[in-house]
UniProtKB/TrEMBL annotation:
Keywords from the named record: Transferase
Domain GST C-terminal: 82-204
Protein name: glutathione transferase
Subunit composition and interactions: Homodimer.
GO molecular function terms listed in the Swiss-Prot or TrEMBL record: glutathione peroxidase activity; glutathione transferase activity
GO terms (BP aspect): glutathione metabolic process
UniProt-listed Enzyme Commission number(s): 2.5.1.18
Length: 214
């Protein structure tokens, strides 16, 4: 296993947080290199694709959130034991990502017209996709992809926090008791609890934080 990890990302949750939380859950020490929003123009040209998150592994830089999470999932033995199990994990993560992408898009949209369209899209998509995951959690004995914890559950925890933050007008998890229970179960993990208590406040998205659920 590599010995040196450094995550470069905004001082926000977003795409950086699942990587931070996976390393944290696995008890892997890492340098959490955060920068403020206003510093981004200076940092952008120094990043491999002009984007973040970037994970430095033993000094080499890697990009792309989901592949990085999948890699960490494998490293931490939070992956599937065969192709079908890995497909279930990938599929759950992609469902979470599909809802989140629309929620983020809506959040950053400045045109009233487009915001309204994204609003309608989100309020149709969110119950449908989260409803599917709710059924999956019920069937999987409390976990999102398989009958045991996988890296998809950690991605879920981060997605839960961001969704609660991005959709303040209506609790997106209302009526989804199994998803809520999963969130509570994950928050029993001591590594995650300590990390959540100590991490910097998300200044740009601070309507909700998991700290209120500890
Ligand atoms: N496919 C990449 C997308 C990365 C991405 O869009 N990062 C955003 C922040 S979440 C970014 O760097 N935006 C600033 C920019 O493109 O200038 C991934 O999943 O990691």
């Amino acid at each position: 296993m590599p010995s040196n990890f450094k995550l470069i990302y905004y001082n926000l949750t977003g795409r950086g947080e699942p990587i931070r939380m996976l390393l944290t859950y696995g008890g892997v020490p890492f340098e959490d290199s955060r920068f403020e929003w206003d510093d981004w123009p200076k940092i952008k040209p120094t990043m491999p694709l002009g984007q973040v998150p970037v994970l430095e592994i033993d000094g080499k830089r890697y990009t792309q959130t989901i592949p990085l999470c999948r890699y960490l999932g494998r490293m931490l033995k939070l992956d599937g034991k065969d192709d079908m199990e890995n497909l279930a994990i990938d599929s759950a993560v992609e469902i979470l990502w599909d809802v989140l992408k629309v929620a983020y898009e809506r959040n950053w949209e400045t045109s009233d017209e487009k915001k309204k369209q994204l609003d309608a899209k989100l309020h149709t998509l969110s119950p449908l996709l989260l409803g599917k995951l709710e059924e999956d959690v019920k069937r999987n004995g409390g976990f999102i992809a398989l009958n045991r914890i996988t890296w998809a559950d950690i991605v879920f925890l981060c997605s839960y926090e961001d969704m609660m933050n991005l959709v303040p007008e209506k609790d997106p998890f209302e009526g989804f008791a199994n998803l809520r229970q999963l969130k509570n179960k994950l928050l029993e993990n001591e590594n995650l609890r300590e990390y959540i208590k100590k991490r910097p406040v998300n200044k740009m998205m601070n309507r909700f934080s998991l700290i209120s659920d500890l």
